Amino acid sequence: MNSSANKEKERIGLGIDLGTANLLVYQERKGVIFNEPSVIAFDRESGKVVAAGIDAHRMLGKVHSKIAVIKPLRSGVISDMRAAKSLLTYVLSKIDNLSAKAMETSTCVICCPSEVTKIERDVMIDLASKMSITDAFIEEEIKAGALGAGIDIFKSKGAMIVDIGGG
Prior knowledge:
Distance between the termini: 47 Å
Strand content: 25-35%
Low-confidence stretches: none
Largest sheet: 5 strands, mixed
Number of helices: 6
CATH architecture: 2-Layer Sandwich
Helix content: 25-40%
């Protein structure tokens, strides 16, 4: 088997919805493999991640001054790049079969709100790049939702999709 065929065999299809309220990770052939709050907790002195997702969410308002609990998105847009990268890196490192090598060969679709600017989209692509994801695309959440619901977006037929996200 040649090396390009091996790469295709190893390629993992990922979908990431880095939402204001929740982070969802979808893996091809497995479905949603992570769905927890978009929250991360750091040790202020060491910078080390203490918790992420539901565990970090439970810490909101209940920690001492040496722990920072951060929501890295505001209104669907990354407001803290370091926290967003740490959240995604931490979560993806906890998922089976998603080694650093697997991330390099993954195709990843990252969902964003329709109203984000080109600069904000570039920030999301930059985030993927910093995580060694070389094949990343940004897609509007509403379009991804329609496709996920099985709607043919190219047909001349009306359909209503309502996105009531947390941001």
